[in-house]
Amino acid sequence: MVSENVMDLVEKGLMLPLMEEFYTIQGEGFHKGTAAYFIRVGGCDVGCHWCDVKESWNAETHPPTPIYSIIDNATKFSDTIVVTGGEPLTWDMGPLTFGLKERELKTHIETSGAYPLTGTWDWICLSPKKNKLPVGDIHKKAHELKVIVYNKHDFIFAEEQAAKVSEDCVLYLQPEWSVREKVVPLIVDYVMKNPKWKVSLQTHKYLNIP
Ligand SMILES: C[S@@+](CC[C@H](N)C(=O)[O-])C[C@H]1O[C@@H](n2cnc3c(N)ncnc32)[C@H](O)[C@@H]1O
Ligand SMILES: Nc1nc2[nH]cc(C(=O)O)c2c(=O)[nH]1
Ligand code: SF4
Ligand SMILES: [Mg+2]
């Protein structure tokens, strides 16, 4: 049983259901290859059938953790912090990112954009999902758009999403891991014909790192 006091602190973003935190190499997208400390916050109701971290979905299975301890741990590793999940925007990211910025850390987020944008971010990676579309004006704020390609229709979805982002936003197509052998040739062909897009791979899975 979580007490009312804890629920109140989670509501305010002062505690977060923490699934895991780990120091690794950013495997995906624009910052791939960069050492980064990952904070994986539990809770997501978007329901992607191919999600590679379904254990994150149920927030109740992840202990409410005070953000000061998450921030203290984060300072020990690198100056780049990636907040992911689950869907981090399920929660108020204001206090966590305020604390990280106070320590002069770079704040990056991996998000579907399915909930309103909170927090102060140096880098926003928006990975929209068809079953729960991004809300608000996050398209305009995204530095990177990363669309997961599971089937051919995802190219159409990718173009619809790309029409909404800013001119400077970097566009990525990333194969869904379980069908990578089938979709990688489609992505390669698409990017060669439509070079505004770039290929993103989950390089950490090839490197056998978290
Ligand atoms: C696990 S999600 C967590 C952050 C947020 N909920 C989101 O979807 O952006 C982190 C990144 O992994 C991507 N992803 C999840 N499962 C994947 C899979 N099976 N293959 C390729 N990318 C995947 C997501 O699209 C997202 O860009
Ligand atoms: N190395 C590594 N890079 C990543 N980039 C995005 C990830 C995520 O799950 O959000 C991820 C992850 O889980 N591991
Ligand atoms: S939005 Fe992200 S965490 Fe949620 S189910 Fe989809 S890929 Fe998984
Ligand atoms: Mg991952």
TrEMBL record:
<dbReference type="InterPro" id="IPR007197">
    <property type="entry name" value="rSAM"/>
</dbReference>
<dbReference type="GO" id="GO:0008616">
    <property type="term" value="P:tRNA queuosine(34) biosynthetic process"/>
</dbReference>
<feature type="binding site">
    <location>
        <position position="86"/>
    </location>
    <ligand>
        <name>S-adenosyl-L-methionine</name>
    </ligand>
</feature>
<keyword id="KW-0479">Metal-binding</keyword>
<keyword id="KW-0411">Iron-sulfur</keyword>
<keyword id="KW-0949">S-adenosyl-L-methionine</keyword>
<dbReference type="GO" id="GO:0016840">
    <property type="term" value="F:carbon-nitrogen lyase activity"/>
</dbReference>
<dbReference type="InterPro" id="IPR058240">
    <property type="entry name" value="rSAM_sf"/>
</dbReference>
<dbReference type="Pfam" id="PF04055">
    <property type="entry name" value="Radical_SAM"/>
</dbReference>
<feature type="domain" description="Radical SAM core">
    <location>
        <begin position="41"/>
        <end position="115"/>
    </location>
</feature>
<feature type="binding site">
    <location>
        <position position="48"/>
    </location>
    <ligand>
        <name>[4Fe-4S] cluster</name>
    </ligand>
</feature>
<dbReference type="GO" id="GO:1904047">
    <property type="term" value="F:S-adenosyl-L-methionine binding"/>
</dbReference>
<feature type="binding site">
    <location>
        <position position="84"/>
    </location>
    <ligand>
        <name>substrate</name>
    </ligand>
</feature>
<dbReference type="GO" id="GO:0000287">
    <property type="term" value="F:magnesium ion binding"/>
</dbReference>
<dbReference type="InterPro" id="IPR024924">
    <property type="entry name" value="7-CO-7-deazaguanine_synth-like"/>
</dbReference>
<feature type="binding site">
    <location>
        <position position="40"/>
    </location>
    <ligand>
        <name>substrate</name>
    </ligand>
</feature>
<feature type="binding site">
    <location>
        <position position="210"/>
    </location>
    <ligand>
        <name>substrate</name>
    </ligand>
</feature>
<comment type="subunit">
    <text>Homodimer.</text>
</comment>
<keyword id="KW-0671">Queuosine biosynthesis</keyword>
<comment type="function">
    <text>Catalyzes the complex heterocyclic radical-mediated conversion of 6-carboxy-5,6,7,8-tetrahydropterin (CPH4) to 7-carboxy-7-deazaguanine (CDG), a step common to the biosynthetic pathways of all 7-deazapurine-containing compounds.</text>
</comment>
<feature type="binding site">
    <location>
        <begin position="127"/>
        <end position="129"/>
    </location>
    <ligand>
        <name>S-adenosyl-L-methionine</name>
    </ligand>
</feature>
<comment type="similarity">
    <text>Belongs to the radical SAM superfamily. 7-carboxy-7-deazaguanine synthase family.</text>
</comment>
<protein>
    <recommendedName>
        <fullName>7-carboxy-7-deazaguanine synthase</fullName>
        <ecNumber>4.3.99.3</ecNumber>
    </recommendedName>
</protein>
<feature type="binding site">
    <location>
        <position position="51"/>
    </location>
    <ligand>
        <name>[4Fe-4S] cluster</name>
    </ligand>
</feature>
<keyword id="KW-0004">4Fe-4S</keyword>
<comment type="pathway">
    <text>Purine metabolism; 7-cyano-7-deazaguanine biosynthesis.</text>
</comment>
<keyword id="KW-0456">Lyase</keyword>
<keyword id="KW-0460">Magnesium</keyword>
<feature type="binding site">
    <location>
        <begin position="50"/>
        <end position="52"/>
    </location>
    <ligand>
        <name>S-adenosyl-L-methionine</name>
    </ligand>
</feature>
<dbReference type="InterPro" id="IPR013785">
    <property type="entry name" value="Aldolase_TIM"/>
</dbReference>
<dbReference type="GO" id="GO:0051539">
    <property type="term" value="F:4 iron, 4 sulfur cluster binding"/>
</dbReference>
<feature type="binding site">
    <location>
        <begin position="25"/>
        <end position="27"/>
    </location>
    <ligand>
        <name>substrate</name>
    </ligand>
</feature>
<keyword id="KW-0408">Iron</keyword>
<feature type="binding site">
    <location>
        <position position="44"/>
    </location>
    <ligand>
        <name>[4Fe-4S] cluster</name>
    </ligand>
</feature>
